[in-house]
Design goal:
alpha/beta, Aspartate Aminotransferase, domain 1, Aspartate Aminotransferase, domain 2, 17 strands, about 15% strand, 4-stranded antiparallel β-sheet
């Protein structure tokens, strides 16, 4: 993609570009196919067919038993909020309890914190290992008589850790506790099958897989009851009122179809390029200054994510210097006074202080090449040198440090 050539894009976990095939699928709905899907005339029927096709494609890509289990939303945060707030509304407990982990996306943790401050719920955030993986026994042990929901992400957005979702749902089967998983960061990076996972609800996001921003989905297993997210018209079978954005939905559906077709080949490419990135950083920087965060077992991590901490480097300043050459994200959000605000994930996995502020998330994608990795590592090395990091003799030739 020509527009990705000047600045190496290593921030696919933040968003992906709209893939050319997706843009082509969307194009008619920007102009001539303009009807309202709720209209019965030819213009409306064409758009209704596009919405139905998108639903079928997303359902197939995530392993849903039926397209009727897919409800379209505007974003992952909306899907997460709907799953949580809807389940709370259905609960008969005066103050329901929710089980989660301490490395969830803010769409989960900040909502739960807000609800707890309002005395509407209590929640338990189960800790994770140093690799960012929750212990199944700890999750089961956190369940209380008034627990109304367990919500645990599938793939972590910062370090790529995959949670043992199936093992947890197997253990809680028969407890009559709904299970929701935010799978926004795993779809497109590992195989996702909601039936194999055993979840009742799951969140998926279009712009993480090559579709446009502004469209997402909530999978709701047949038989799981949720109140409507929005009340009004009959869209989304009465569960989310409001005229559908056909152009966005068509893009989401096409991206899901591409993912289902390319799956294994795509995952292999992502792992290959990500591992090449790690090896290149290991050759380029002193070993004692590098720390890679997350699982070492390939089967327990997403295929594209590399969280690296560089001792002695300020990640915010590093990314500021790299802003025109390498696009990436920091693990330490920002300076506040004399301290720094670290993400929940970095705190949860106990990254040493001397490394934590130098944490950068690098995430590769469908269009990332090894040539781009070479360029990116060169720029990162220069930026580290500008912060006073001595890299003399750190470059390895033929696999050896010189």
């Amino acid at each position: 993609m020509p527009f990705l050539q000047d600045c190496v894009y290593l921030d696919y976990n933040a968003t992906t570009p709209i893939f050319p095939e997706v843009a082509q699928e969307m194009q008619p709905f920007l102009y001539e196919a303009f009807g309202n899907p709720s209209s019965g005339h030819t213009y409306g029927r064409k758009c209704k067919a596009a919405v139905d096709l998108a639903r079928q494609r997303v359902a197939s890509a995530v392993g849903a038993a039926s397209p009727d289990e897919i409800y379209f939303t505007s974003c992952g945060t909306e899907s997460d909020n709907w799953a949580i707030l809807g389940t709370i509304d259905n609960s008969t407990f005066p103050v329901p309890h929710i089980v989660t982990t301490n490395i969830e996306h803010p769409a989960i943790l900040e909502l739960l914190r807000s609800l707890q401050r309002q005395n509407k719920i209590t929640f338990t955030a189960v800790g994770v290992s140093s690799e960012g993986i929750v212990n199944v026994d700890d999750v089961v042990g956190a369940i209380k008589p008034e627990t109304c929901l367990i919500t645990i992400m599938h793939g972590n957005n910062e370090i790529g850790a995959l949670q043992p979702i199936k093992e947890i749902t197997d253990r809680i089967r028969g407890m009559d506790i709904p299970f929701h998983s935010d799978a926004a960061q795993s779809l497109g990076k590992v195989k996702v099958d909601v039936q194999e996972m055993g979840v009742d609800m799951a969140t998926f996001v279009g712009h993480k897989i090559g579709a446009p921003k502004g469209v997402a989905a909530l999978y709701v297993k047949d038989g799981v009851k949720l109140p409507p997210a929005l009340i009004g018209g009959a869209q989304e079978r009465g569960m989310r009122a409001g005229t559908e954005s056909v152009v966005l939905l068509s893009g989401f559906g096409k991206a899901a179809e591409m993912l289902e077709k390319e799956g294994d080949e795509l995952f292999h490419h992502l792992r290959t390029v990500r591992n090449y990135l790690r090896e290149s950083l290991e050759r380029a920087l002193p070993e004692e200054r590098l720390r890679f965060n997350g699982p070492t077992d390939e089967s327990k991590r997403t295929a594209n994510t590399l969280s690296v901490s560089i001792k002695g480097v300020n990640a915010s300043l590093l990314l500021l210097e790299l802003q025109d050459t390498v696009a990436a994200s920091a693990g330490a959000a920002c300076k506040r006074g004399q301290g720094a605000l670290l993400s929940d994930t970095l705190k949860a996995i106990d990254v040493p202080a001397e490394f934590a502020l130098g944490t950068v998330r690098l995430s590769v994608g469908r269009h990332t090449s090894k040539a781009e990795i070479d360029r990116a590592v060169g720029h990162i090395l220069e930026a580290c040198e500008s912060q006073g990091i001595d890299v003399t003799g750190s470059i390895r030739q033929g696999g050896h440090r010189v």
